[in-house]
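User: Sequence recovery, please. Input:
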C-alpha cells in the first residue's frame, strides 16, 4: 500500500503519508495543480456546478496513486457510493483511512454515518474479514490502518450504530474459542452443550455457573440458524481469537538481530494499544479477559524478541500497561473492585489449586504441594521447582491447570521456557497496585522528562502510538479512574517542567572548562548555580514502610543579582517546588548548541530531582517562619540557604542504587531551578489524587455507576430518583402568575386559593404524581401531558421590619420554561446537567438554583466551583444581589479582590465583617436597652445580650401579645407596643392605625427585626471565645457559611486541609464545567469524609457547554492520544445522561446567532434581541451586520510560519487594523471593539501593527482586546474583527468547538477576514460558512455614516450606495483619506504614505511609516515564541 493518512486539505504523494513527524504542507497553487483537486472539482466538490457519474475505478486510482485527506471526499464520494456487496478492498480501506484522519484531527468522525447508517454493518464486516481471513491480501501498513479504525470503533461505543457491531465481538460467545481438552477437540465444542469437561471453558463455567444456561441457549440458537447466519456468528465470535493469533504469528517472525521494518514495529505497537483499549473498559473486557489469558497473549509478548530489541522500547512500555490491565483488581463479571483481602484470598485459592494438582498427579512436585504459600509464589521459587522437571511433565501440569490444551498427537508444541513463564505469570505473587502507587516518586526525573514515548514533544501529530492511558467514556473502578488521571496529570506537569528546565538550562549556558569542570556563562531569572548542598536529616521509616519518613536538605545559592529578582527568590513560600539539577557540560567555550539534536545529551543533564521548600534560613540557621509578626531578618551577604524536603520514595531508590555501584546523586547537584507559582501546584494536586486512592473514597450510591459510565445513564436524574421532592418553594423565581403559567406549558395549573388577587409571587409548587396506569397499559404522550398537574400555593413573606433595608431582594429575570426546568432539576436530589449555549443565561440559572436551595433547605450547605476566578466572581456578584444573608457567604482562594464590591468575602474578610457586625449589633442592643429603660451593661458581649433577650425583651413581647389578644383594638397596638422608642429612626408613624391586621403585622415585623439581632449575636458568640484569626476563619468555614465558593484549582490544592477541618456540604454546583479537567471536576465532590460509609452529597449540578472549547492541555499528545481534554461534563453528555438544553439567547442579534445556532438542538432568540434599539439599528459605516471578507495574498504571500506552528498573515493583520481605524474614525468607541484571531503568531503580529499605527494616536488608540479565540472564551463585545490566518490548510479551526466560540463572541457586528476559497470547502465548517457566503465577500462600507448620529434600521433600504473594498491596500488607502479629512492634514513624509497606485495592490498604507514584509518580520522577532498548537 502506498497511502494512509494525510493532513486534511493538503495535497501530497501517498508515500509521504506514513512518515512520522512534521509534514510540510504544499501551497494553494500546488493544490490547485494537483490531479486530485481536478478529481474533486469533477466528482464531489460541494460547489461544483456539475458532477460526473460515480466511477469505482477512480477510488482505486486515487488510493494507489494520490490518496489525500481531501475535504468531503469521504462524505460526498466514498460513503455515498459504498456498497457492502460490491465495493472493493480499496474502497473499504479508503474509508478507514479517512475516518482515522478525522479522529487524528479531532473533528467529528462519524457524522457521515447519518447518511445510510445501515451500510456500516457491511463495512465493519468487510474490514473484519480483511483483518483476519484476507490477511495475506494486504500489506502490514494497511493492516495498521484497519487496526486503527477498529481502535477508534472500540473507543466510540457511545455511538449506537458502532456499538451494535462491537457487541458481538466481545459477547460471551467468544468463550467458544477457549482452550478445549485438546487442540483436536477445538471444532467439536460448537456441537456440544458442554456437558463433558472441555478445558478452560468448563473451568470458567464451574466458577460462574450462571453462564452455563446462557451459553447453551446461544448454542441452540446457533444450531437452528441457517448457514449464512452461522458464518456471520462464527466470524464475530472468532474474530478476536483469530486476530490475536495472527498477531502472535507476526510477532514470532521478528528476529533477534538484523533490520526490522518500522511499519512492522508500528503495527505491533498499535495492536497492543488495541488490546489495552479492550481491557480498559468493563463491557469489552468482561469475557475477553478470559480469552486473552487463555491465549497466553501476555506471556507470548514478553518472550518475543521485539520486547528485547531497542526498537521495541515502546512495545515494552505498552506491554507493561497491558499486564497491568490484564491483572486489574476487579471482578470481571460483577464489575466490583476487589479489596486487598479479596485479592489475597484469590491468590491463595489459586496456589492451593496448584498444590492439589501437584500432590495428586505429580510426585516430582511434592515439595510444591507441601510447602507454605509464601515459599512457592515468587518467580525465583517457581523457576527453582520447575527447572529440573521434564518438558512433558510441565506441559501436562499446565494442561491440568487449563493453561494449555491436553497433550495428544495434535497438540501444539510449546517451548519449555514458555510453559514456565506461563506458570509464573499465573501464580506469581504480584505487588499491590496501590502499593506501587504509594512507592512512586511524585517528581519527574531525567529518565521520564526526556522520554518521547511517555512525554512527547509539543509537535505531536497524532500519527504515532504512545504508552499513555486514555480517558475514555468508561472506567473499571474508582481506583482505575484516579490512577489514569494521576498518571496523565503527572505527565502533563512533567511536560511543562521539561519546558521550564530546558529554558533555564539553555539560558545558563553550561560549558566545559579545561580541567573538565562545568561552568555557567549565562544567566537565568529562574535558576541559580548551587554553592552547597547537604542532606541534614533522614528519619527512619514508619512502621510497615521501607522508605524514610522524612528527608531534609539545605541548598545554598549566591543571589548576587538585581534587587527585584532577589526579592523573588527570597519570596519563595513554604511548599513551593524547586528542582535540583546535575549538569556535566559536553561542549567547550565558543561552541554552539544545535537545536536539532537531543537537548539532554547536548547540555549534559545527568540528574533532575524535585524538592519542596520548608523555608529560607536566617544567618543563625533557623527557618524564617511565614506570617510572623517579627520583621524579616537582614542579611550581610548575598548568600541564601533554603531548607527543603526531598521525595522519600526517590531518595530510597537512589540510595538503593548506590549499593549496586551507582553514583550518589545527592553529591552532584550544581543548579537550582524554580518555577512560576501559578504553574507550580502540580505536587499538591498529585498528593490529593494519591490520598484519594488511599482513603475511603465514596461516591454517592446514586451517582457511582453513572460516574464510571455503566448502567442507565438517566439513573441519577431527578426523575429517576426515589427521593424526589414533591413540594418546592420557588421563592422569587417567578415574576407573576402569568410567568408561572408560561413556564409550565405542558402542565395543568391548580391554585390553592381561587382569589385571583392572591395569585402573586412567591409561590410554593407541588408537582402532583402521575396516576398509575399499570404496567401493561402504555400511556401516549398527549395523555401523559394532560395528566401532569401542579398545585400552586402563593404565600406572603413575613414582614422583616420597618426599614427599607429589611425588605427582601427580588429576582428580576423572566426565566424561560427551559431555564425553569433547569432550576427545578437543580433543586431536586440527583445529577443535573445544564447545556448553556452562548448568551442563554447559564450564570443566572446557577445563581437562582443556589438561592432556591438556600431558602428551601436551611440545614444544607452548597459548594460553588468554577474554572476561573473571573467566572467565580461573576457568579458571586449576582449571588450577593439576591436575598441571601451575606454572613452565610464565603469566597475561598485568590481573586476575591477583583469582586466589583467594596465587601470582602474572603475568609479573613468575613471574620472582620462578623467582628464589625458584632459591635454594630451590640450597639443596637445598647440602644434597645436604653429604649425600654433597663440598666446594666447588657451589651458587653453576645452572652449578656442573649440573657437580656430572654429575660427582658421576650417577656415584654409576650406580654404585648397577650394584651392584644384580650383587647383586639387597633389603638392598643400603638399604645402598648414596648419597642416604639427603639424604632424612632424608622419611617413615622410606625403604626398607621387603620387596621389591626396591618398594625399587628408591622409589630411582628419589628419584633422579627429585633429577634434577628439576637439570633446573629448568638451565632457570633463563638468568635468571642476563639481568640485568633485562624480559629475564627476555620469556624466560619465549617459552621457559619452556608454557601462556599472556590475554584477547582483551590479545591484540589486544599482538599487535605478542608477534610482535616471537617468541612461538610450537601450540594455542589459547577459553572464552566465543560472547561474543567475530569479530575478537577471530581475532586470537589470529595472534599469531605463519608458519614457511616455513605456520602453526604445530595445534589450535583454541572453547567457548561460542550460545544465550546474544552480545558487547555499544553501537550498535544495528552490532548489527542489520551483525550485528556475531555471534561466530565462532556463525558456525561456522550454517555447519554439527560441534559437540560437552554434554548433562548439574549446576547447577539438574531442574524449573528444563526452563525452558531445550527450546532445546538434548538436555539432561539429572546424578545429583546428585536425590541431593543441597539439590535434594531444597523452598524454605522457598514452595509452588513456580519460579513466574510475574502483576503488575498499580499506581495504573493498568504500565511507564513516563521517558527513551527507560529502562523501569521500580514495581509489579514493590515486589513483588520485598517478596518479598526476606519471604525474609530467614524466614531466607534474603542472599548466596544475586540480583535480576535485563531493563532498566537497572528495575535502578536496584529499587536505589532496596532502599536505601530494606532497606540500613540489619540484619535484611534488600542481596541478593547487583541487576543486569541481560545483566550476570549467566556467573554463578549459589541463588535468583533476576526482573523482566521490560514491560506494553505484549514488548521485547527476544523475543530467545530473553536468555530462556535469564534462566531459567538459578537453582540452587534462580526467581520471575518479569511481566505474564502479555503474555508468554504471544509465539511465541518460548512454550516457557518454557507451562511457567511450568502453575502458578498468584498467589504461593503458606508463612510458617510457616523456613530454619534446614526439611526438607520438594520433592514432599512440604503440611501447611499456602499463603497466596495476590493482588497487590503485599498482599505488602508481609504482609511488614510478619511484620516486626512478628519484631521485636515496633508500627507507628509512622516504621516500616511503609500507606494501603491489604484491598480497596484503591492503596498500597505501606514499612519506612521511604510512597513514591508521584512519590517514586519523584524518586529516580530521580539515576540516569536516556540509555536502554538493550542491556539
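Assistant: Recovered sequence (1431 residues):
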Amino acid at each position: 500500500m502506498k497511502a494512509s493518512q494525510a493532513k486534511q486539505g493538503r495535497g501530497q504523494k501517498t508515500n509521504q503519508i506514513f512518515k512520522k513527524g512534521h509534514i510540510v504542507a504544499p501551497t494553494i497553487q500546488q493544490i490547485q495543480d494537483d490531479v486530485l483537486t481536478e478529481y474533486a472539482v469533477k466528482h464531489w466538490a460541494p460547489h461544483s456546478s456539475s458532477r460526473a457519474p460515480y466511477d469505482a475505478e477512480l477510488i482505486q486510482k486515487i488510493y494507489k496513486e494520490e490518496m489525500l485527506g481531501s475535504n468531503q471526499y469521504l462524505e460526498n464520494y466514498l460513503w455515498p457510493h459504498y456498497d457492502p456487496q460490491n465495493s472493493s478492498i480499496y474502497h473499504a480501506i479508503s474509508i478507514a483511512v479517512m475516518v482515522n484522519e478525522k479522529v487524528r484531527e479531532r473533528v467529528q468522525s462519524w457524522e457521515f454515518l447519518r447518511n445510510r447508517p445501515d451500510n456500516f454493518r457491511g463495512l465493519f464486516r468487510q474490514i473484519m474479514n480483511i483483518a483476519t481471513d484476507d490477511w495475506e491480501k494486504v500489506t502490514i501498513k494497511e493492516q495498521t490502518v484497519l487496526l486503527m479504525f477498529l481502535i477508534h470503533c472500540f473507543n466510540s461505543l457511545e455511538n449506537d450504530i458502532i456499538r451494535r457491531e462491537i457487541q458481538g465481538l466481545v459477547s460471551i460467545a467468544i468463550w467458544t474459542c477457549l482452550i478445549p481438552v485438546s487442540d483436536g477437540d477445538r471444532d467439536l465444542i460448537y456441537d456440544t452443550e458442554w456437558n463433558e469437561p472441555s478445558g478452560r471453558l468448563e473451568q470458567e463455567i464451574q466458577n460462574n455457573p450462571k453462564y452455563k444456561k446462557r451459553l447453551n441457549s446461544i448454542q441452540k440458537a446457533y444450531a437452528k440458524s441457517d448457514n449464512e447466519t452461522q458464518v456471520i456468528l462464527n466470524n464475530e465470535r472468532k474474530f478476536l481469537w483469530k486476530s490475536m493469533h495472527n498477531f502472535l504469528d507476526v510477532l514470532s517472525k521478528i528476529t533477534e538481530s538484523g533490520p526490522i521494518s518500522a511499519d512492522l514495529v508500528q503495527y505491533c505497537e498499535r495492536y497492543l494499544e488495541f488490546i489495552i483499549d479492550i481491557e480498559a473498559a468493563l463491557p469489552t473486557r468482561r469475557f475477553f479477559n478470559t480469552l486473552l489469558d487463555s491465549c497466553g497473549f501476555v506471556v507470548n509478548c514478553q518472550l518475543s524478541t521485539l520486547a528485547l530489541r531497542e526498537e521495541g522500547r515502546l512495545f515494552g512500555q505498552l506491554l507493561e500497561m497491558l499486564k497491568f490491565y490484564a491483572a486489574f483488581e476487579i471482578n470481571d463479571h460483577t464489575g466490583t473492585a476487589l479489596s486487598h483481602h479479596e485479592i489475597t484470598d484469590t491468590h491463595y485459592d489459586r496456589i492451593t489449586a496448584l498444590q492439589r494438582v501437584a500432590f495428586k498427579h505429580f510426585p516430582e512436585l511434592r515439595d510444591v504441594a507441601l510447602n507454605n504459600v509464601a515459599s512457592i509464589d515468587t518467580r525465583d521459587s517457581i523457576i527453582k521447582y520447575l527447572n529440573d522437571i521434564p518438558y512433558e511433565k510441565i506441559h501436562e501440569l499446565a494442561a491440568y491447570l487449563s493453561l494449555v490444551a491436553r497433550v495428544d498427537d495434535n497438540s501444539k508444541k510449546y517451548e519449555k521456557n514458555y510453559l514456565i513463564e506461563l506458570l509464573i505469570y499465573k501464580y506469581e505473587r504480584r505487588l499491590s497496585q496501590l502499593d506501587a502507587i504509594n512507592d512512586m516518586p511524585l517528581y519527574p526525573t531525567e529518565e521520564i522528562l526526556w522520554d518521547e514515548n511517555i512525554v512527547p514533544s509539543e509537535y505531536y501529530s497524532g500519527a504515532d502510538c504512545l504508552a499513555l492511558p486514555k480517558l475514555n467514556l468508561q472506567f473499571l473502578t474508582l481506583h482505575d479512574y484516579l490512577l489514569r488521571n494521576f498518571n496523565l496529570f503527572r505527565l502533563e506537569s512533567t511536560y511543562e517542567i521539561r519546558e521550564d528546565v530546558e529554558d533555564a538550562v539553555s539560558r545558563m549556558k553550561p560549558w566545559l572548562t579545561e580541567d573538565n569542570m562545568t561552568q555557567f556563562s549565562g544567566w537565568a531569572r529562574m535558576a541559580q548555580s548551587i554553592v552547597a548542598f547537604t542532606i541534614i536529616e533522614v528519619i527512619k521509616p514508619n512502621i510497615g514502610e521501607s522508605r524514610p519518613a522524612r528527608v531534609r536538605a539545605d541548598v545554598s545559592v549566591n543571589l548576587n543579582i538585581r534587587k527585584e529578582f532577589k526579592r523573588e527568590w527570597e519570596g519563595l513560600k513554604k511548599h513551593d517546588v524547586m528542582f535540583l539539577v546535575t549538569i556535566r557540560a559536553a561542549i567547550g567555550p565558543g561552541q554552539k548548541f544545535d537545536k536539532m539534536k537531543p537537548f539532554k545529551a547536548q547540555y549534559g543533564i545527568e540528574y533532575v530531582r524535585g524538592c519542596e521548600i520548608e523555608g529560607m534560613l536566617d544567618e543563625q540557621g533557623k527557618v524564617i517562619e511565614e506570617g510572623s509578626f517579627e520583621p524579616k531578618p537582614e542579611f550581610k551577604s548575598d548568600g541564601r540557604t533554603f531548607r527543603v524536603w526531598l521525595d522519600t520514595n526517590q531518595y530510597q531508590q537512589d540510595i538503593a542504587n548506590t549499593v549496586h555501584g551507582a553514583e550518589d546523586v545527592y553529591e552532584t547537584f550544581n543548579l537550582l531551578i524554580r518555577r512560576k507559582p501559578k504553574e507550580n501546584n502540580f505536587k499538591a494536586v498529585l498528593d490529593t489524587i494519591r490520598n484519594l486512592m488511599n482513603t475511603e473514597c465514596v461516591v454517592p450510591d446514586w451517582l457511582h455507576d453513572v460516574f464510571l459510565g455503566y448502567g442507565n445513564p438517566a439513573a441519577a436524574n431527578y426523575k429517576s430518583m426515589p427521593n424526589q421532592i414533591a413540594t418546592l418553594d420557588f421563592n422569587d423565581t417567578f415574576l407573576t402568575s402569568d410567568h408561572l403559567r408560561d413556564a409550565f406549558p405542558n402542565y395543568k395549573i391548580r391554585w390553592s386559593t381561587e382569589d385571583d388577587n392572591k395569585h402573586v409571587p412567591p409561590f410554593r409548587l407541588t408537582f402532583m404524581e402521575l396516576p398509575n396506569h399499570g404496567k401493561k397499559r402504555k400511556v401516549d404522550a398527549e395523555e401523559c401531558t394532560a395528566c401532569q398537574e401542579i398545585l400552586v400555593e402563593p404565600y406572603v413573606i413575613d414582614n422583616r421590619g420597618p426599614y427599607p433595608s429589611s425588605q427582601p431582594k427580588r429576582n428580576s429575570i423572566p426565566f424561560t420554561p427551559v431555564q425553569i426546568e433547569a432550576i427545578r432539576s437543580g433543586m431536586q436530589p440527583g445529577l443535573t446537567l445544564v447545556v448553556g449555549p452562548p448568551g442563554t443565561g447559564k450564570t443566572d440559572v446557577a445563581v437562582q438554583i443556589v438561592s432556591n436551595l438556600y431558602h428551601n433547605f436551611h440545614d444544607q450547605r452548597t459548594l460553588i466551583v468554577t474554572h476561573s476566578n473571573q467566572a467565580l466572581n461573576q457568579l458571586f456578584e449576582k449571588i450577593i444581589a439576591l436575598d441571601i444573608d451575606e454572613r452565610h457567604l464565603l469566597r475561598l482562594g485568590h481573586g476575591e479582590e477583583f469582586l466589583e464590591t467594596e465587601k470582602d468575602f474572603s475568609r479573613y474578610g468575613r471574620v472582620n465583617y462578623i467582628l464589625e457586625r458584632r459591635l454594630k449589633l451590640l450597639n443596637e442592643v445598647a440602644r434597645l436597652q436604653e429604649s425600654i429603660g433597663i440598666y446594666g451593661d447588657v451589651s458587653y458581649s453576645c452572652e449578656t445580650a442573649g440573657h437580656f433577650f430572654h429575660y427582658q425583651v421576650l417577656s415584654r413581647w409576650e406580654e404585648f401579645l397577650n394584651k392584644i389578644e384580650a383587647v383586639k383594638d387597633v389603638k392598643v397596638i400603638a399604645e402598648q407596643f414596648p419597642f416604639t422608642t427603639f424604632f424612632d429612626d424608622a419611617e413615622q408613624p410606625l403604626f398607621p392605625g387603620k387596621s389591626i391586621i396591618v398594625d399587628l403585622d408591622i409589630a411582628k415585623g419589628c419584633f422579627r427585626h429585633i429577634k434577628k439581632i439576637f439570633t446573629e449575636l448568638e451565632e457570633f458568640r463563638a468568635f468571642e471565645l476563639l481568640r485568633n484569626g485562624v480559629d475564627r476563619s476555620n469556624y466560619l468555614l465549617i459552621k457559619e457559611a452556608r454557601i462556599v465558593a472556590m475554584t477547582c484549582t483551590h479545591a484540589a490544592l486544599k482538599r487535605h486541609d478542608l477534610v482535616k477541618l471537617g468541612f461538610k456540604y450537601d450540594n455542589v454546583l459547577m459553572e464552566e464545567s465543560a472547561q474543567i479537567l475530569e479530575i478537577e471536576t471530581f475532586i470537589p465532590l470529595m472534599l469531605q469524609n463519608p458519614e457511616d460509609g455513605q456520602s453526604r452529597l445530595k445534589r450535583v449540578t454541572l453547567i457548561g457547554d460542550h460545544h465550546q472549547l474544552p480545558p487547555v492541555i499544553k501537550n498535544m499528545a495528552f490532548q489527542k492520544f489520551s483525550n485528556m481534554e475531555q471534561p466530565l461534563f462532556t463525558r456525561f453528555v456522550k454517555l447519554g445522561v439527560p441534559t437540560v438544553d437552554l434554548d433562548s439567547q439574549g446576547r447577539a442579534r438574531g442574524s449573528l446567532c444563526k452563525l452558531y445556532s445550527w450546532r445546538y438542538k434548538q436555539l432561539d432568540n429572546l424578545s429583546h434581541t428585536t425590541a431593543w434599539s441597539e439590535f434594531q439599528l444597523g452598524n454605522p459605516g457598514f452595509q452588513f451586520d456580519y460579513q466574510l471578507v475574502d483576503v488575498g495574498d499580499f506581495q504573493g504571500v498568504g500565511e507564513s510560519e516563521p517558527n513551527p506552528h507560529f502562523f501569521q498573515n500580514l495581509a489579514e493583520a493590515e486589513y483588520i487594523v485598517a478596518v479598526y481605524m476606519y471604525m474609530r474614525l467614524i466614531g466607534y468607541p474603542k472599548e466596544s471593539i475586540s480583535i480576535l484571531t485563531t493563532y498566537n503568531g497572528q495575535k502578536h503580529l496584529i499587536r505589532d501593527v496596532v502599536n505601530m499605527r494606532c497606540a500613540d494616536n489619540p484619535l484611534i488608540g488600542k481596541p478593547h482586546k487583541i487576543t486569541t479565540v481560545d483566550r476570549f472564551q467566556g467573554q463578549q463585545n459589541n463588535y468583533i474583527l476576526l482573523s482566521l490566518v490560514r491560506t494553505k490548510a484549514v488548521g485547527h479551526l476544523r475543530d467545530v468547538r473553536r468555530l462556535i466560540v469564534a462566531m459567538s463572541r459578537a453582540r452587534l457586528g462580526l467581520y471575518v477576514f479569511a481566505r474564502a476559497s479555503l474555508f468554504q470547502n471544509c465539511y465541518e465548517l460548512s454550516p457557518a460558512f454557507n451562511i457567511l457566503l450568502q453575502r458578498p465577500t468584498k467589504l461593503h462600507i458606508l463612510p458617510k455614516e457616523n456613530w454619534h448620529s446614526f439611526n438607520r434600521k438594520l433592514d432599512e433600504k440604503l440611501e447611499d450606495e456602499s463603497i466596495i473594498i476590493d482588497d487590503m491596500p485599498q482599505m488602508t488607502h481609504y482609511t488614510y483619506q478619511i484620516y486626512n479629512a478628519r484631521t485636515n492634514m496633508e500627507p507628509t513624509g512622516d504621516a500616511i504614505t503609500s507606494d501603491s497606485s489604484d491598480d497596484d495592490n503591492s503596498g500597505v498604507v501606514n499612519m506612521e511609516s511604510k512597513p514591508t514584509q521584512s519590517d514586519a518580520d523584524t518586529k516580530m522577532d521580539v515576540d516569536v515564541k516556540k509555536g502554538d498548537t493550542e491556539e
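The radius of gyration is 37 Å.
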